[in-house]
Design a protein that fits this description.
The structure holds two protein chains of two kinds. By secondary structure, chain A is α/β, with parallel strands linked by helices. Chain A is built from seven helices and 15 strands. Chain A is 33% helix and 32% strand. In chain B, helix 2 packs antiparallel against helix 5. The chains are: A alpha/beta, B mainly alpha.
Chain lengths: 229, 134
């Protein structure tokens, strides 16, 4: 399998270097290189990639700001010359963190992580349920029972028709764990079960009488995914 | 200059981080030449920009330029300068007035010039080697 990737990097030398490594690896296709986050976001609105090589500090929006606005969750390898971003990298659940300049050996290690994560994700996408820890118990929730997931700071609320479950987690983390065939992030605070949407009006959608906002950045992704006749 | 197969090898200059450069480029000396050339060129461009930012008293802007320049020294095997740039980048964040950084900035300018001399010397060696043996 070849991973479709983009490079978001304002340092031309670093981007060329990385392109060469991708080519040498034989498993990464670099679809495009962007010098800033804004141009990359425009591209990502209409195109899906498996992997983003992402610099953090660039002119304009930062790499983390780009991740905040993505409507889906490709794998991300941060490429930066600072080690101070390690905590943020963990928060954003990035696959790896490469400090520039990095060797080909280190690059290959990162690609192995991508491959491993990709295998795990393909396994989880076939799952029809997930387990959450709530009230000291591990509870199995079938995808079909979950209407939507709402952020509550360091906690999230799973809404089912019968009950609400609160568990210690974040929307950002769950984004990569839930089945993308069924769930979609529509707002920084909401992931919804796509099959449960009753109607959409402007920038809100309704599920079982619950009104859920759709953020401006996620709107096009939502509209692409629904089946409009 | 020879490896075990009696093939002529290029040895990076001792004044650079030879082990790191070897890890970075392996046998691909054409890439090394290209990266040395681009890095040196970009350092020259960026240092002019850094001087302009410093003279304008724009420490935020100066910090950004310094941040961008930092890894370029790594690609040419001068890792200690990368660390010096990292330290200066932090100072730019903490200081309020460019005038307080005059001495440190002069040091950055001198270090950059010295690094450029090393990079260009190595680039010349790489070009000669690549022309002769590749």
């Amino acid at each position: 399998m070849k991973y479709q990737s983009i490079i978001v990097e304002d340092l031309q030398v670093a981007a060329e270097f990385l392109k060469k490594f991708c080519e040498k690896s034989g498993v990464i296709d670099v679809v495009q290189h962007f010098l800033n986050a804004e141009d990359a976001l425009k591209f990502l609105k209409d195109n899906v990639v498996d992997l983003i090589f992402l610099d953090v500090e660039m002119p304009g929006a930062s790499g983390f700001e780009l991740l905040d606005q993505l409507v889906y969750a490709p794998q991300v390898i941060l490429t930066t010359s600072k080690t101070e971003y390690a905590y943020n990298a963990f928060q954003y659940n990035v696959t790896d963190y490469l400090k520039k300049p990095f060797t080909y050996q280190r690059f290959l290690e990162a690609i192995q992580k991508v491959s491993k994560k990709s295998e795990q994700a393909s396994g989880s996408s076939e799952q029809d349920h997930l387990f959450i820890k709530s009230d000291g118990k591990l509870i199995r929730l079938h995808n079909d029972d979950i209407l939507f997931i709402e952020s509550m700071g360091d906690y999230v609320k799973f809404i089912t028709p019968a009950k609400k479950y609160i568990t210690h987690n974040t929307i950002k983390n769950l984004e990569t764990k839930v089945n993308p065939q069924v769930f979609m992030k529509v707002h920084r605070s909401y992931i919804v079960n796509f099959t449960k949407i009753n109607d959409i009006q402007e920038n809100v959608l309704f599920i079982n009488g619950n009104m859920i906002p759709i953020s401006k950045t996620h709107k096009s992704g939502v509209m692409q995914k629904i089946n409009i006749i | 200059m020879h490896n075990t197969e009696n093939k002529i090898m290029f040895a990076f200059s001792e004044e650079l981080d030879t082990a790191f450069l070897h890890d970075l480029y392996g046998d691909d000396l054409q890439q090394a030449e290209m990266v040395f050339e681009s890095s040196a060129q970009q350092i020259k461009t960026e240092i002019v920009l850094a001087q302009a930012k410093f003279h304008d008293g724009d420490l935020q802007g100066l910090k950004k330029v310094i941040h961008k320049m930092k890894p370029l020294f790594g690609y040419i095997g001068i890792n200690e300068v990368m660390e010096e740039f990292a330290a200066f980048e932090k100072i730019c964040l903490e200081e309020q007035a460019a005038a307080n950084l005059e001495q440190q900035f002069q040091y950055i300018l001198i270090t950059t010039q010295q690094s450029l001399l090393k990079a260009e010397k190595e680039l010349k060696r790489l070009k000669q080697f690549n022309t002769q043996y590749l």
